[in-house]
Amino acid sequence: MIEKIIAVLAKFVIAVISHGGYLGVAALMAIESACIPLPSEIIMPFAGYLVYAGQFNLFWAATVGAIGCNLGSILAYEVGYHGGRPLVEKYGAYIWLNSHDLDRADRFFHRFGAAAVFIGRLLPVIRTFIALPAGIARMPRLKFHLYTFAGSWPWCFGLAWVGMKLGEKWHTDPRLSHWLHRLDAVIIVALLAGVVWFFWSHWKGRVRVTA
Known about the structure:
This protein has one domain. Helix content is about 80%, strand content about 0%. It has eleven helices and no strands. Helix 2 runs parallel beside helix 4 (about 60-90) and helix 3 (about 40-50) packs antiparallel against helix 4.
């Protein structure tokens, strides 16, 4: 079951990027930054593979990915800015955002201030939700977008670079394929545990909201 979910998600990402090119990368990264859990860890490595294939440029792949992060963050920022925490808590469960996610992003923002937007964009999970507390705190929009781009670009570049290097090695180094196949069972178990934990913890928050 988990293999099918991952395969469907990967096919969706591949189809969007294959047909949309750089615009597809920007659109997918915008979705992730709008607090919808579409992982950049799938999006950008495939963009990096297309760098290896000669269809993309590494610099521009990272740049359009970061631009997509800024575009998607507009929605999350404005929701926090205009609706505040009550609105986020009321409707967040419908996009699998529970109070724990918001608390974590909120604590992170208040600990590091405006720099949290830059730092948070370099961290998994937090990067998806950091725009909400920034909006709630009414961080100046220009500063917010500058920090968002500055933190998103190296994240996008790093993931795309990994995808590019994996593409280079896949057909030239048989050890890569061999070890990945040996780790299949471990990866599947880890992903299954992560998915079960994610949906269980977030479903409880959703039930409390809709009750």
